[in-house]
Structure formats: C-alpha cells, structure tokens
C-alpha cells in the first residue's frame, strides 16, 4: 500500500481578500502535494476557510447582512482562485460546514468529560486581530517580532482548557522530536515561549470559549458561549481529514500562527488521544506522538521592501499581479526565491529578473537550442552515446547527482536550494555546449570521432532536459508538460514517478518541435502593465469566468411575460439520492410554493433557510425526481462554475415584484 501523505494549508480568514501571502502558502503546499504524488504516495491535500469570529460578525453587521451571508459571499474568493490557478487540493473545508461543527462539539464534550476543560472568570488583555487573550510576556514577544497588535482589556466568564497540564509532554515533544517544528530556529522560538530560559511553569491555561460573540459554534450545553475560533479552526484539519490519512505529515503555516500550531494544537490532540492511566508528568507515550502532526513547517513573510504588507499601507500584492506572467512563473519565483523560514522582500523587478534569467534564458534557451541541434544534426533522433571524454563524464556525473541532490533537498524542506542546484546543472550544460562546440563537431560527417562526440553531447542534453521536466513538474506543471512534449515524450509528465526516472534510458521517440517554454519579459513594458492592473485592482477581485455569449435580442413584451418575485425560503432539505437537488418551501407573498433547485453542490440546506431569493413565479410546474417544482430560483453563474443565489435587499418582502 502506498505511503499516505496528508498535507494542509492554514484555513484562511474570509474577511481578507487573497494576497501574495495566502497565494504563497497555498502554492507551496500544492508543490509539495504534487511532489509527493510523484514519489508515489497517496496524497491528501486539504485547504479551506476559517469563517467564525468577531471580525466576521462585525463586518456582516456593518453591511447589514447575516454573517452566514457574508461568508458565503467571500469564501469563494479563495476556492475559485485556487481552482483558476489549477491547484490540486483534494478538499476545501469551511468551518461553517455542518460536519465540522459537529466534530468540534463532540471533541469539546470529550475533552470536557476528561476533565481538561473547566469554567472560570477571566480578565485579561485581548488581541482583536489574533482573536486571542495574550499574556504580558506574549505581548512583549509579539512586539519584538514586529507583530504588535491592538489590545483591549476583556472580562468574561469562560471555559478553559488545561494547557498548563500539557507543559511536560509539550517540552518532551520539542526535545525528543525536533522535526515537529521546522526550520529549527522556529522550534527554538517555540521552546523559548513555553519555557523561557528553560524554566517551567509559564504555560497558562487557555480560554476556549467566548460570550462576547455569537457567530461561532455553540458550546454544548451552555449555548451562551461559543467555541474560541482557534479551537474551532484547528479542528478543521481533523474534521476534513480523509479516512485513513490521519495524522498530517506536513502542516504549512506562516510564522505569525506558529504558537497556535506548535503549542495549542498538539496539546488539544494530546488531550484527545490520551487514555486512562497515561501520566502527564511522565514520559510522552510514542502512541500519542504518532497521532500528532509530523511537522509544522513554518515559513516567513513576503515583505514589500522592508515593510510588512498591509491593507492600510496599500502595498499588497494581489494574485492578479502575481499571475500576470503565468501561474508557473509565479510558482517558480515564489519557491525559488523564498528561503523557507525567513522573510523575503518582494519586488516586481526581482521577479522579472528571475524569470528572464532562469526561465526565458536558462531553461527556455537550453531547451530550444538542444532540440534544434537534435533536429539539425540528427534529424530529431536522439543518439546513443558511446564515447566519454573527461568533460562528458563530468557532465554525466553531474546530471545523475543532480537528481539525487534535488530530491534530498526537497526532503529537507530546502526547496529553493533544490531548484538552485537543478539550475546550476542547466548552466553547466550551457558551458558544456560552448566547450564542445557541436556546430564544429557536425562540420565533417565523415569524421567518426567528432560524430561520436556529437552523439554524446546531444544525448546528454536530452537526458538533462528530460530529467528537468520530471523533477520540476511539481513546481511548474504546465511548462514541464510543454518541455516533455517537445522532447517527443508521450503521456502526461505529472503521471511520471521519480523512482522511474531512468536518466540514461534511450529516448523512446524522436524529439518534436521545441514549444516555446517562456518568453523574455521586457521589464519596462511589464512594470507599466502591472501598474495598470494595480490601478484596476482597487475593485474587489471578481471571479474570472468563461463568460458565455449574449443571447439574441428580445423585446420588452417577451421579457415582461416572466413574473419575478421576492421569496423567502422557509424550509430546505436535500432530495434523497441527488447531489444537486434541494427541495424548498418558499414564501412568495401570495402563497407558499414547493421549489426544487439544483443548488445542492453550492449550498447546504441549513444555509438556505431564512434567505431572501428571487423566484420565477409564473413558470409551469414540472417534476424533478418525482417532486413537483413550482418555480425557479434566480442564480448567477457562468454555466461551468457553481450557482450563486441572487439576493434581494433584506427590506424587500416576499411577493414584491422584481423588475
Ligand atoms: N485563520 C487563521 C489560520 C487558522 S489555521 C487553523 C489565519 N488565517 S490568515 O488568512 O490570516 O493567514 C493565513 C496564512 O497566510 C498564514 O499562514 C499567514 O502566515 C499567511 N500570510 C499572511 N500574510 C503573509 C505574508 N505577507 N507572507 C507570507 N505569508 C503570510 O491566520
């Protein structure tokens, strides 16, 4: 059975529009998911959105809509973006999903039954941006990292999780299993946080309920409390985990959420998995370590110049700008230029320079040169090498070492280093061409020594390119597919396995025409294009749709025949055996109608009850799966993506005519 590999992104807050930070994290996870698929593993890649909490509650009330309406509107910003970028997530979880809410309540009850949750009065400093109480020491720590947040004093009755009871096990986790947090210097930060100067007794219990918020998962049996957003959000990794894939191998996060993932999260899990008789003051049992994430992989931040990106500074890089040169180009730059764990400053200049140097020149040039020489000197047929001089052997060793080195570096989370070493080999191949001068070797076809040497040079170029196509596919799936096809190889390069990478095996087919992999960017032109996008981008991101053509012109009379009314959904339930259909009772002012709508892939029934909708009210009834539907709900859609219900203003009442 293949090894299982479960990898996650953080669950993104929906109150923010996606930017370079979210895009980077998700791309990194996508690269790792693809890489592990090519290692032959059974991958489960989870991402999603974190939708509860005070910020959503406030934003919704500012706009006069319900929090559910708000999150339904904004969660697709993330889901659609990842889809448009061709990312390979296996599941998109939302913390407002029913199954998730049920799991949180169930785990809460279990922890409570174990005595790990108790009720007490709490007064403390509260950080609104973190949605967390913070201690004085934590405030100093955050400020030292440049993460100072607005704080208020809050007093409330709260349920507490006995975090302090897990101090001993946590410290053992960090000491005995240093791979739990990578890179190492981030682990050291966590250790200092839990036990400053190695002293014990600093870890305080954690408030895990709120009474000041209503937009959250109710605490079982005490519904004036809702579950603290972090207890809620962290558990989505579990509620959405595919059967048999627990625990996560890699959870990728940014440095700002390290504390939650490296301290609270394992402590919650330790509490869930500990059994009667386990001694919290004794050794951390292996059995429990095995239920915790293998590695919390922590990256630094993309900065603008030296400063943090922030909405108020208006220096946010949005996906549209980042993807201007193609998805693969953005993927390559983000993975190549970020040294995992550290911060990195982003500039469009360095972005363009990297693409020109490594993709247009480096790989692009080498591929087109090599393929055209294969056509010119060998009619496209890749020769078998027979003679090896010193420089040929040097390159031969370099190619095979590169494959090993690349895979090792990826394994050590040194993604930038892996690409760097692959590109160093590509540069060495440029040097190899210059030194061996194939155009001179080809001059006299009757010179068998020259001809044999030319065979070797051409074969090595081919082998290196074929290896590059396979190794770099997780980072640049589209560009590598083009390279794969140019090399005359059939099938999809994503279906290749690293283990099957037989560098020296003969070419199965002649090469084809070299498809252009990446065109050189004119910096000045590109910078002004980016500026234009930034200006246009002051508008919220709209999903990029394949907008269907307009239908033929109609006249007013025809349009007026359609009677559109405001309706309110009173009841909603799924139609058994149908993924799409939902049966609803809709009040249209004049009467209550049964309407069956094909919106079940986009909405859960409980999200629909209480909503205002627009109903096509004078359609002849028709039967859908045996149920008579009397009307249709208006939705927006591009016919390919999911439906978005049209929502009339809250003050429009059932029966109002829509015109
Ligand atoms: N909702 C929480 C996570 C809950 S996980 C159970 C959250 N969401 S977030 O949307 O604010 O952030 C998600 C991720 O984006 C974090 O890992 C954060 O580090 C990352 N980034 C936000 N800005 C960033 C940069 N400027 N650069 C790189 N990543 C950054 O936190």
Structural description of this entry:
The structure is a single chain. The protein is an alpha/beta fold. The chain contains 22 helices and 25 strands. The strands form seven sheets. A six-stranded parallel sheet has the order 3-2-1-12-13-7, with helices on both faces. Strand 14 and strand 15 (about 305-310) form a beta hairpin. Helix 2 packs across helix 3, helix 16 (about 415-435) packs antiparallel against helix 18 (about 450-470) and helix 18 (about 450-470) runs antiparallel to helix 19 (about 475-485). The termini are far apart. The site of 5'-O-[(L-methionyl)-sulphamoyl]adenosine has 19 residues, from strand 1, helix 1, helix 8 and strand 12.
């Amino acid at each position: 059975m293949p090894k299982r590999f479960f990898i996650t992104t953080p669950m993104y807050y929906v109150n923010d529009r996606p930017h370079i930070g979210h895009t980077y994290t998700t791309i990194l996870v996508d690269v790792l998911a693809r890489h592990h698929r090519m290692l032959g593993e059974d991958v489960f890649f989870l991402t999603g959105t974190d939708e509860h909490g005070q910020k959503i509650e406030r934003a919704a009330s500012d706009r006069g809509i319900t929090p559910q309406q708000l999150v339904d509107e904004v969660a697709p910003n993330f889901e659609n973006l990842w889809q448009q970028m061709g990312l390979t997530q296996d599941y998109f979880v939302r913390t407002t999903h029913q199954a998730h809410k049920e799991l949180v309540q169930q785990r809460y009850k279990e922890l409570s039954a174990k005595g790990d949750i108790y009720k007490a009065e709490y007064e403390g400093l509260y950080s609104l941006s973190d949605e967390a109480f913070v201690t004085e020491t934590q405030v100093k720590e955050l400020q030292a990292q440049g993460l100072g947040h607005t704080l208020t004093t809050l007093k409330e009755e709260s349920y507490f999780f006995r975090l302090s009871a897990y101090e001993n096990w946590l410290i053992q986790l960090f000491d005995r299993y240093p791979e739990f947090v990578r890179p190492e210097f981030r682990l050291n930060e966590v250790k200092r946080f839990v036990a400053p100067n190695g002293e014990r007794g600093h870890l305080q219990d954690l408030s895990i309920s709120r009474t000041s918020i209503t937009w959250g998962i109710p605490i079982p049996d005490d519904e004036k409390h809702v579950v603290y957003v972090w207890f809620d959000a962290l558990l989505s990794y579990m509620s959405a985990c595919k059967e048999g894939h627990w625990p996560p191998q890699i959870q990728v996060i940014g440095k700002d959420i390290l504390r939650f993932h490296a301290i609270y999260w394992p402590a919650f899990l330790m509490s869930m998995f500990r059994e009667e008789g386990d001694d919290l003051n004794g050794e951390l049992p292996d059995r429990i370590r095995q239920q915790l994430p293998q590695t919390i992989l922590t990256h630094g931040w993309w900065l603008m110049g030296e400063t943090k990106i922030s909405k108020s500074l208006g220096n946010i890089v949005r996906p549209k700008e980042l993807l201007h040169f193609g998805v693969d180009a953005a993927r390559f730059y983000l993975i190549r230029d970020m040294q995992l764990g550290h911060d990195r400053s982003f500039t469009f200049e360095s972005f363009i320079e990297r693409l020109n140097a490594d993709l247009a020149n480096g790989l692009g040039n080498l591929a087109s040169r090599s393929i055209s020489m294969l056509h010119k000197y060998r009619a496209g047929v890749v020769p078998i090498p027979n003679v090896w001089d010193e420089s040929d052997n040097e390159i031969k060793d370099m190619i095979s070492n590169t494959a090993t080195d690349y895979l090792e570096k990826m394994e050590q989370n040194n993604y930038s280093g892996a690409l760097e070493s692959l590109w160093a080999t590509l540069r060495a191949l440029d040097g190899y061409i210059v030194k061996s001068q194939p155009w001179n070797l080809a001059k006299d076809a009757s010179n068998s020594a020259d001809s044999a040497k030319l065979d070797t040079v051409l074969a090595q170029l081919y082998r290196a390119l074929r290896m590059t196509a396979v190794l770099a596919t997780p980072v640049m799936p589209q560009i590598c597919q083009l390279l794969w096809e140019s090399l005359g190889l059939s099938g999809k390069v994503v279906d290749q396995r690293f283990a099957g990478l037989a560098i020296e095996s003969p070419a199965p087919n002649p090469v084809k025409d070299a498809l252009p992999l990446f065109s050189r960017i004119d910096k000045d032109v590109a910078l002004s294009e980016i500026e234009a996008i930034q200006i246009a981008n002051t508008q919220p991101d709209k999903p990029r749709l394949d907008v269907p053509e307009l239908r033929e012109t109609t006249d007013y009379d025809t349009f007026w025949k359609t009677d559109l009314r405001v309706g309110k959904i009173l009841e909603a339930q799924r139609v058994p055996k149908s993924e799409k259909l939902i049966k609803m009772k809709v009040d249209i002012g004049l009467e209550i109608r049964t309407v069956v709508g094909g919106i079940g892939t986009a909405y859960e029934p409980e999200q629909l009850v209480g909503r205002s909708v627009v109903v096509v009210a004078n359609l002849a009834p028709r039967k859908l799966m045996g149920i008579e539907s009397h009307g249709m709900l208006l939705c927006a859609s591009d016919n390919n993506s999911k439906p978005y219900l049209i929502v009339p203003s809250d003050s429009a009442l059932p029966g109002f005519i829509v015109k």
